[in-house]
């Protein structure tokens, strides 16, 4: 496989006629912030550590929110009043049915008394409906509390390497403040500005040579054109393009200049 890559790289280089210089960028470079204000209670990782998507980087003090979540769960699980009203309503259904038959067949009960029982029955059904609706609301509030509790964990959105962690244990952090930097450089891209006259030699998915100078050595990578802007810069008439290449061996450091040969 390595030999085939060298043959392809050599072929690209031999038939190349043009070159453009650009900057190497990682496929992902993000600065993270917390979703809620708080005090850093735990640091699980440090600068230079490899992190996976969804892994917790740091944790804020969440004792109060945990207690609030437990309280919400207790309220949700307490169905005493709901069960009591359901049983009462079942009994009242039988009473109303009997009173309705009694009034219809014997008139042994007055219409006024029957209406009083009917009103009580309607009120009981309304109370049950309100309790059922309140149970749904309590369920949603419990889910919200769980979600808020998750805000106290700062998780990585991608696989990558931590390049910076600003806060220390016990420090206060705020929403919107960038406190952690993560880079994923397994795939990199070179962003270049191309003269309109050279565009005829490039197209989407076409292969080009990426050359990166590393001291006295030249690192060569096979790149693929992934993006070509449909508009040119109004002041320079140059067209922006991005050439992606595999960097799973981590031999190319993002931020350096690279030569695109095609």
Overview of this structure, please?
The structure is a single chain. This protein is of the alpha+beta class. The protein has three domains: 104 residues, Efflux pump adaptor protein, beta barrel domain (Elongation Factor Tu (Ef-tu), domain 3), CATH 2.40.30; 47 residues, Beta Barrel (OB fold (Dihydrolipoamide Acetyltransferase, E2P)), CATH 2.40.50; 88 residues. The protein is 36% helix and 34% strand. The protein has four helices and twelve strands, in the order αββββαααββββββββ. The strands form two sheets. A six-stranded antiparallel beta barrel has the order 1-8-11-10-9-12. It has a four-stranded antiparallel sheet with strand order 5-4-2-7, with no helix packed on it. Helix 2 runs antiparallel to helix 4. The longest helix is centred in the middle third of the chain and has 40 residues.
Strand content: 25-35%
Please give the domain count.
3
Distance between the termini: 22 Å
> What share of the residues lie within helices?
25-40%
The parts where pLDDT drops under 50 for at least 5 residues are 1-9
Largest sheet: 6 strands, antiparallel, barrel
CATH topology of the largest domain: Elongation Factor Tu (Ef-tu), domain 3
CATH secondary-structure class of the largest domain: Mainly Beta
Shape: elongated
Please identify, by name, the CATH architecture of the largest domain: Beta Barrel
Question: Superfamily at the CATH H level of the largest domain?
Answer: Efflux pump adaptor protein, beta barrel domain
């Amino acid at each position: 496989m390595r030999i085939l890559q060298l043959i392809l790289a050599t072929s690209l280089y031999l038939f190349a006629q043009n070159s453009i210089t650009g900057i190497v960028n990682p496929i992902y470079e993000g600065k993270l912030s917390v979703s809620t204000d708080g005090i850093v209670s735990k640091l699980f990782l440090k600068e230079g550590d490899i992190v996976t998507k969804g892994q917790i980087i740091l944790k804020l003090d969440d004792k109060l929110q945990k207690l609030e979540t437990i309280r919400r769960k207790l309220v949700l699980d307490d169905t005493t009043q709901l069960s009591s009203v359901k049983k009462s309503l079942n009994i009242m259904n039988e009473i109303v049915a009997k009173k309705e038959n009694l009034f219809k067949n014997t008139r042994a009960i007055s219409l006024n008394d029957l209406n009083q029982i009917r009103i009580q029955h309607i009120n009981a059904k309304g109370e049950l409906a309100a309790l059922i609706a309140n149970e749904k609301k309590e369920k949603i509030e419990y889910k919200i509390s769980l979600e808020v509790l998750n805000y106290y964990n700062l998780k990585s959105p991608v696989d990558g390497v931590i390049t910076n962690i600003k806060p220390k244990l016990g420090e206060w952090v705020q929403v919107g403040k960038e406190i952690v930097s993560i880079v994923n450089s397994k795939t990199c891209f070179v962003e270049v500005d191309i003269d309109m006259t050279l565009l005829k030699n490039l197209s989407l998915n076409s292969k080009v040579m990426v050359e990166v100078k590393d001291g006295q050595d030249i690192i060569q990578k096979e790149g693929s054109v992934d993006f070509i802007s449909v508009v040119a810069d109004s002041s320079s008439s140059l067209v922006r393009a991005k050439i992606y290449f595999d960097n799973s061996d981590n031999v190319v450091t993002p931020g350096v200049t690279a030569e695109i040969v095609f």
